[in-house]
Specification:
The protein has ten helices and 15 strands. With 333 residues, it is of the alpha/beta class. The chain folds into two domains: 2-138 and 302-332, Medium-chain alcohol dehydrogenases, catalytic domain (Quinone Oxidoreductase, Chain A, domain 1, Alpha-Beta Complex); 142-279, NAD(P)-binding Rossmann-like Domain (Rossmann fold), CATH 3.40.50. Strands 3, 4, 5, 6, 7, 14 and 15 form a seven-stranded mixed β-sheet that branches. Helix 3 packs across helix 4 (169-180) and helix 6 (215-222) packs parallel to helix 7 (239-245). The radius of gyration is 20 Å and the shape is globular. It binds NADP nicotinamide-adenine-dinucleotide phosphate.
């Protein structure tokens, strides 16, 4: 079967299409034929060597496809079922711990950039009703992170105010989930061309973070004292503004490092505002099931910017690198 591997030195032009033996499911495992995947910034870091992985690692955390064989003792799935991967295949439910998050698809273990993968039957979920494979493949990392930040950790209520930053996959899902839950959404982007797209998805107020470098204080003022929930994706580039944008007693989800890995914190602002900050990494299979249930009732559909074939994975990452995309870039097999 076809698979893509990350090879030393890890660069986008060194991703290799290889032919490897198709796996056979063991006891408790299912064999999934992937039909689509999608790109996350995490996958990009793996592909360029920003996150070091074993030589020959199969990348991509996200996948959607068909169960084509089941191993002995499998009870949850049948051949023909449509399933989606989970970012942490061993974090089925409950509180996070080291053991549950040790396996990470496309990073510490092989991911979905292959035609077929064997997985434990407990490490996938059903796809939302009526979703295409491409749509379902956008969910496991980006959408689940947004869901966890807002619904699980943030306990978002209708009428709350939310700030989402940039127009990447995770942030666009956060906008959609927040609007579906009845929130008022502030969004930022570096591109005036993307403002209309954000508004069409329901963003109530959009600010260009390049032309207004003090967008945090601006949002604090516009919202009459700060927003309830902030999803910080820029790290070094955004955290100071994110803190300024939050209200007293607000919640900041520390999610991304698009602008750098470190940040200086103005500590008196943190305790003066009595902020709650949650560092989070995606979520559990149990959270993914809850998100799929909510998608089935809300009718939320992912925003897919462009689709590439598996062989074009390097080109797809080059496109992601430009930052021109809005929402998700998908890979179809
Ligand atoms: N912790 C987790 O569990 C988790 C899960 C998913 C993602 N993440 C992180 O979240 C971030 C976004 O991931 P993604 O997969 O959604 O990426 P992506 O699709 O590649 O998003 C790229 C977009 O982010 C925006 N951006 C770039 N630099 C920015 C900055 N300094 N400030 C604000 N926006 C900026 C740009 O939007 P505009 O063109 O509109 O400016 C750009 O198009 C990454 O750091 C990723 O590692 C973390």
């Amino acid at each position: 079967m076809r698979a893509i591997t990350v090879n030393k030195p890890a660069t986008l032009d060194n991703l290799a299409v290889t032919d490897i033996a198709a796996p056979t499911p063991g006891a408790g495992e299912i064999l999934v034929q992937w039909r689509a995947s999608s790109l996350n910034y995490h996958d990009y870091l793996v592909a360029i060597g920003g996150i070091r992985v074993e030589d020959g690692r199969i990348p991509l955390s996200d996948g959607a496809g068909d169960v084509i064989a089941i191993g002995e003792g499998v009870t949850q799935w049948q051949v023909g079922d449509k399933v989606m991967s989970a970012f942490f295949p061993n974090w089925a439910e409950g509180e996070v711990n080291k053991a549950k998050t040790a396996a990470l698809l496309g990073d510490t273990v092989n991911g979905c950039a292959a035609e077929q993968t064997c997985l434990s039957e407990n490490s996938v979920t059903a796809m939302p009703d009526g979703y295409s494979y491409a749509e379902a493949a956008t969910l496991p990392c980006a959408a689940l992170t947004a869901w966890r930040a807002l619904i699980v950790e943030g306990n978002l209520q209708a009428g709350d105010t939310v700030l989402v930053e940039g127009t990447g996959g995770m942030s666009v899902f956060a906008l959609q989930i927040a609007k579906a839950a009845g929130a008022y959404v502030y969004a930022t982007t570096s591109s005036d061309d993307k403002i209309d797209q954000l508004k069409k998805l329901g963003a109530d107020t959009v600010i260009n973070y390049k032309t207004d470098p003090k967008w945090g204080p601006t949002i604090n003022k516009l919202s009459g004292g700060g927003v309830d929930h902030v999803l910080d994706v820029g790290g070094s580039a955004t955290l100071a503004n994110s803190i300024d944008a939050a209200r007293v007693g607000g919640h900041i989800s520390l999610i991304g490092i698009l602008g750098g890995f470190t940040a200086e914190l103005m500590l008196p602002k943190m305790f003066g505002k009595q902020l709650r900050m949650t560092g989070l990494s995606v979520g559990s299979v149990e959270m993914q099931y809850a998100m799929v249930k909510a998608i089935n009732t809300s009718g939320l559909r992912p925003v897919i910017d462009r689709s590439f074939s598996l062989e074009e994975l390097g080109a797809a990452f080059h496109y992601q690198e430009t930052g021109k995309h809005f929402g998700k870039i998908v890979i179809e097999y």
